[in-house]
Specification:
CATH architecture of the largest domain in chain B: Orthogonal Bundle
CATH topology of the largest domain in chain A: Rossmann fold
CATH topology of the largest domain in chain B: MetI-like fold
Distance between the termini of chain B: 14 Å
Number of domains of chain A: 2
Strand content of chain A: 15-25%
Structural class of chain B: mainly alpha
CATH architecture of the largest domain in chain A: 3-Layer(aba) Sandwich
Shape of chain B: globular
CATH class of the largest domain in chain B: Mainly Alpha
Helix content of chain A: 25-40%
Radius of gyration of chain A: 21 Å
Helix content of chain B: over 70%
Strand order of the largest sheet of chain A: 7-8-9-3-10-11-13-12
Number of strands of chain A: 13
CATH superfamily of the largest domain in chain B: MetI-like
CATH class of the largest domain in chain A: Alpha Beta
Largest sheet of chain B: none
Structural class of chain A: alpha/beta
Order of helices and strands of chain A: EEEHEEEHEHHHHEHEHEEHHEEH
Shape of chain A: globular
CATH superfamily of the largest domain in chain A: P-loop containing nucleotide triphosphate hydrolases
Number of helices of chain A: 11
Number of helices of chain B: 13
Strand content of chain B: under 5%
Oligomer: heterodimer
Distance between the termini of chain A: 26 Å
Number of domains of chain B: 2
């Protein structure tokens, strides 16, 4: 167990729309240690991104609102009881950098890459000259494997491909030497071949800068090779968490099992079909106090519908946590 | 850069073609108007021989294409012909009236653009607040009010009742700047109503749209201050489409000045054109339509070129 870098406790985030309230994040606690790669996995619309955006306090307010939660980053209190404490602009970028899902639209179309670098770097280094910032930017582009970095600095985003733009965004994080990089579906919009390159790149940077990485994804297959620990999210809650080994080889929650069955295996028998999880995630505006996975659960017991939503509890003694009534007895032992 | 030159070349060519097309249109429209200019001028009781003589002098007996050709030829020689009604040289008339109109329209468009952008930003950054709602109501009202109506109302209020401002005539700023301001203030304000409100509303909408874009989120996520995000990152993206809108509003201002000059008795191009239409003074109408179109087309060309300067996508890809 390394030194705790990010600690998030009891985060609750809702979006107040006309006529309904969407409970996007329902009491989520998680942490990231130094030098650790943590994956947050789940289907679309289960609150993964909102959780990370809330850490950065980037959710649109209104309609979104952080209702509760204590977030501490490297000893700095970011949120206490859902209220912002620190000046986020001191943290954003230079301490925690974020990489987004949509590289095509995440760079400002009317400014040169280089100028965007200069602004990002100078936002945190008051004394830095434009020239120095530009040089650092070019160096970062070089580090993320962009050829002709100096030339690319003078390009506009629309002159670069999607994979290239994602590299530029990663280069922002590199140039800032952030302690934590939150990558929100960093490869979803990219070609499969580029996906692997981007993941390798992130791992390189982690090694070089001694940073930690949070990868948010719906693709368990993608993170299985890279993540140290995995959180599985469903309907705004963490339903299972543990080391990658625990989750991948010994999944407990029916949802995690379902996710794993839905990942194609290259060694598997060609005739075996992928097993999808039937149905779709519930609307986060219409949740009752029962288990949110109940309608889709293949392993539900007769007693499940009458019980309150299961809480996340440690299964065994090795930090493997699961929220499911199937393990009520074992946990109680 | 090369494709930007091509882009500009294309715009210039299009502008020339537009003016050429307008010249044909202006010529035809005037010649298809009911009424006989010669009869109007000489009076309906006049001698047939005198009428024929004047017709001959004005080339009105020649076929239309020949008349058009002679007219254009004259223009290239700097000769717009003579006003049938006033008897004076048209080039001289234009030189006299055009500055008057420009002293109304140029300040009007400048004020509209500057104020429009400021109001739009204020509304967007205070979205939903009392300021936003009040300004939005005012802007919508301004956009809907007819110029002749509010013009007369302003004359009554500021000119007749309060006696703050004169409401007839015009003084050139080169003669007496203070008097120019006093005379031109009301027409300028009134001409600005529609363009100002259109620009303000568009800036507000664009700003609200841009502020939700992914690249703004990126800027926020990297700790760039909200001020810089608003006035640098967002504003440039907001203003690019506004350039097109300004080009459109130039037309609306020219149209507005037509009414404003009439209402405030300003001796500008628009007032001259109204008189000429009423008097069937065809050469003056043709000349003025051409001159006004030239200015509008030129303003549009200028804004198209400016578009490329502001938007790198146009500059580098040539607008493809």
């Amino acid at each position: 167990m390394g030194e705790r870098l990010l600690d998030c406790k009891n985060l609750k985030v809702s979006f107040f729309m006309t006529g309904s309230t969407v409970q996007a994040v329902r009491d989520v606690s998680f942490h990231v240690d130094r030098n650790e790669v943590v994956a947050v996995v789940g289907e679309s619309g289960c609150g993964k991104s909102v959780t990370q955006m809330s850490i950065m306090q980037l959710i649109q307010t209104p309609p979104g609102k952080i209702l509760s939660g204590d977030v501490t980053f490297d000893g700095i209190e970011l949120l206490r009881g859902g209220k912002p404490i620190a000046d986020m602009n001191q943290v954003r970028g230079n301490r925690i950098a974020m990489i987004f899902q949509e590289p095509m639209t995440s760079l400002n179309p009317v400014f040169k890459i280089g100028n965007q670098f200069v602004d990002v770097l100078r936002a945190h280094n008051k004394g830095m000259s434009k020239k120095e910032a530009w040089a650092l930017g070019a160096k970062a582009l070089d580090e993320v494997g962009i050829p002709d970095a100096e030339l690319r600095m003078r390009n506009y985003p629309f002159e670069l491909s999607g994979g290239m733009r994602q590299r530029v965004l990663i280069a922002f994080a590199v140039a800032c030497q952030a302690d934590l990089i939150i990558a929100d579906e960093p490869t979803t919009a990219l070609d499969v071949t580029v996906q692997a390159q981007v993941m390798e790149l992130l791992m390189d940077i982690k090694k070089k800068n001694n940073s930690s990485i949070v990868i948010v994804t719906h693709n368990l297959g993608l993170v299985s090779r890279y993540a140290d620990r995995i959180y599985v999210m469903y309907a705004g809650q963490i339903v299972e968490s543990g080391t990658s080994e625990q989750i991948l080889t010994d999944p407990k929650h029916p949802y995690t099992k379902g996710l794993l069955n839905a990942v194609p295996q290259i060694q598997a028998d060609k005739k075996s079909d992928l097993v999808p999880i039937e149905g779709a995630p519930p609307s986060l505006a219409k949740l009752d106090d029962r288990c949110a996975f109940l309608p889709r659960c293949a392993m539900k017991c007769d007693s499940c519908p009458s019980k309150a939503s299961p809480v996340l509890r440690e299964y065994g003694t090795d930090g493997h946590m699961v929220a499911c009534h199937l393990f009520d007895e074992e946990v109680a032992k | 850069m090369n494709s930007y030159v091509k882009y500009i070349g294309k715009r210039i060519l299009l502008s020339v073609l537009t003016i050429f097309a307008i010249s044909i249109f202006a010529f035809l429209i005037v010649h298809l108007m009911p009424g006989d200019p010669v009869r109007t001028m000489l009076g309906y009781e006049s001698d047939q021989a005198a009428v024929d003589a004047l017709r001959e002098e004005l080339n009105l007996n020649k076929p239309l294409p020949v008349q058009y050709f002679l007219w254009i030829k004259g223009i290239f020689q700097g000769n717009f012909g003579r006003s049938v009604m006033l008897g004076t040289d048209i080039s001289g008339l234009i030189k006299e009236k055009l500055p008057v109109s420009l002293w109304l329209t140029v300040p009007s468009i400048t004020i509209s653009v500057i104020l429009g952008i400021i109001i739009g930003i204020v509304c967007a950054t205070h979205r939903g607040s009392a300021i936003d709602q009040t300004l939005t109501v005012i802007m919508t009202t301004m956009n809907g009010i007819p110029i002749f109506w509010i013009g007369i109302l302003f004359i009554y209020l500021f000119g007749v009742k309060l006696r703050w401002l004169p409401f007839v005539g015009f003084v050139s700023p080169t003669e007496n700047f203070g008097e120019y301001v006093r005379h031109a203030l009301l027409p300028i304000i009134i001409c600005s109503f529609r363009p100002l409100s259109s620009i303000a509303r568009q800036v507000r909408t664009n700003m609200l749209d841009v502020i939700n874009q992914d690249y703004i989120r990126t800027a926020k996520a990297y700790g760039i201050s909200i001020r810089k995000i608003r006035y640098k990152y967002a504003l440039k993206n907001v203003l690019i489409p506004i350039i097109t809108l300004i080009a459109l509003q130039v037309r609306s201002i020219v149209g507005g000045s037509l009414l404003a000059e009439q209402v405030f008795s300003v001796p500008g191009v628009s007032r001259l054109i109204t008189q000429s239409v009423l008097n069937n003074d065809f050469l003056v109408i043709q000349a003025l339509v051409l001159v006004i179109s030239f200015f509008v087309v030129f303003a549009n060309l200028f804004l198209d070129i400016a578009y490329g300067i502001v938007d790198p996508r146009i500059r580098i890809n040539g607008g493809k």
